[in-house]
Amino acid sequence: MDEQPKSGAVADEEISAFMLRQLRSGRVKPAVMVVLTEKAFPEVSRERIIQCFNALDSTYLKG
Fold first, then answer.
1. Is 34 in contact with 50 (CB distance < 8 Å)?
2. CA–CA separation, 60 vs 42, rounded Å?
3. Which residue in 24, 59, 36 sits closest to 50, CA to CA?
4. What is the pTM of this model?
5. Rg (CA), the chain
6. Residue range 5-59, pLDDT digits in tens
């Protein structure tokens, strides 16, 4: 039985995966990651996006 989030709900894993893809691409600086993620996921609160950002592996945030 697959547990899908409710329609319109975004899982933290999806937000984190988006951030990691952006950071790995090398085109996005960590300083603009929260703003970029807010634009990609407008239905998600800024506080939750920041929590996901803070949970990222620090090796991707060192530049």
1. yes
2. 24
3. 36
4. 0.78
5. 12
6. 444 689 999 999 999 999 999 888 888 999 999 999 999 999 999 999 999 876 7
